[in-house]
Design brief:
The chain is of the alpha+beta class and 156 residues long. It contains three helices and six strands; from the N terminus they run βββββαβαα.
């Protein structure tokens, strides 16, 4: 398993700046057997502009592959398109570190992201997103719809 990743997004501008992420632990969920996540420390933290955590600086996230057949713990091709989940309570981080199974309902599906194994590819993807923003503007309605969901839908 890789220990360092790079997170950006081709779906929203909150995550367009490439962030270095350090894997801290695997996350196993009670639901959706076979679907694992990774607890990541995000550097620098992400400023949450929308949803139930608006105004906070998010330093720890859990990422889960958005598409069936893909995984963040057994990667076969890059990038991995991920749900970026934020725990609803601080206890979740300690529970993850202790290896306890988690419930999807205990997380907010805050963003959609793209996880890369090298900074060069992440920077290239981010540059493409910034160029699109200059041409088309920020798709605020799309970002709001994505950012406010309470839990990931894992059927895509």
């Amino acid at each position: 398993m890789f220990n360092v990743f790079y997170l950006t997004s081709s779906d929203n501008y909150t995550l367009v700046d490439v962030r270095r992420c350090v894997a801290l632990a695997k996350v196993k969920f009670e639901e959706q057997l076979g679907r694992e996540g990774l607890l990541l420390r995000v550097e620098p933290p992400v400023h949450a502009e929308y949803g139930p955590i608006a105004g906070s600086e998010v330093e720890h996230v859990v990422v889960v592959a958005r598409h069936l057949g893909h995984s963040v713990t057994h990667v076969t091709s890059w990038p991995v398109y991920v749900y970026v989940l934020v725990p609803k309570c601080d206890d979740s981080l300690e529970q993850i570190r202790r290896g306890m199974r988690q419930k999807f309902d205990d997380f907010v599906n805050q963003w959609w992201g793209d996880l890369y194994n090298n900074k060069k590819q992440a920077d290239k993807a981010a540059k493409t997103m910034v160029e699109a923003q200059k041409i088309y503007g920020e798709p605020r309605e799309r970002q709001n719809a994505i950012s406010h969901r309470e839990g990931p839908s894992l059927d895509t």
